[in-house]
Amino acid sequence: MKTIINHPNHIIYASFNKELTSLDENIIFHILNQIKHINHFEEFKEYKSEKIQLKFKYLNINRNYKSIESTLKKLSNTSIDYSKNIPKHEKIERTITNFISGYRKTENKREVIIEIPGFTVEFLTYLKGGYSKLDFKHFISLKSIYSKRIYKLLIQFSDKGGFNISESKFRKIIGIENKYLRTSDLRKKINLVNKELKNKCEVEFNYKINKQKTNCYLSFKIINTNNSVALERNYQNKIRGNRDMFIFNFLKVFLSSNDSNQPQLITEQIIDSGNSEQFYNRVKRLKNELSTNNSKKTKNDVTNLLISTILPEYKVKINKSS
Predict the structure, then answer these.
(1) Residue 198 vs residues 25, 75, 176, 243, 317: alpha-carbon distances, Å
(2) How far apart are CA 184 and CA 25, in angstroms?
(3) 101, 43 in Cβ contact below 8 A?
(4) Contact 134, 122 (CB under 8 A)
(5) Where is the Initiator Rep protein WH1 domain positioned along the sequence (predicted)?
(6) For residue 9, how far is the Cα from the chain centroid?
(7) Is the pTM above the cut of 0.85?
């Protein structure tokens, strides 16, 4: 069963991100998971501190307590600084707090109890400023800190299918303001992230780096995510998960003509037949083959292969008039 985290968008742009490591981010996500029941849209409400239990086996693959303790010490000194407008008073209320106020560990016990200040609970659970639905297991599985941050950024804009962002803002969010300064190096890093996201989260994107005289910006197109709007509104009843979205998007590329609903109808047939996993594996191998430099298949070749061989294998009926 999936665990979905409502992740406030303001966390993505917070200044403390540049101080965080991949393990730091994992611990913060475990915190978010355990206090998600407090998610709120009320800007002015007091919250009590929260004590939560964290097991080492979920925080560090090697269950290395020294590494975890070092991270907890850092988070206890990592400042969160946020402001709120006070209605009718034209004043701004500023709050400064830390991620955790303390932690407690019993000797020989492979877990730790941490205390989250009430101010931090307010910051981490406030959703009125916008939030994204992130897959907890997907996020934790990512090793690269850059993959984690780009994943959060992609999901924020998944309902729009993509976004444009200035290079300076992108670098600040990802934490590479003074790294990978050459465009070729930046491309290599983004390509590595794309590969990890595709393998571990079934999230894939295309991007361009657009250089202008006075500015440079990156343009991202999100190909496949669980929150993607690659489907038209009337396609959303059955086609929901990453696997089904992948099948739909693949068929849309090779079977769609203008105003054709064949990709939707075929995908729903595959879902109803219970063959979506087998079909997904089949077309994913085909897509990987197409992406290699040695592939000589054209779009027409793939379309003909689908119609003449692959779809009949799964007893899919094709509407010839579409």
Answers:
(1) 20, 30, 22, 12, 30
(2) 27
(3) no
(4) no
(5) 5-154
(6) 12
(7) no
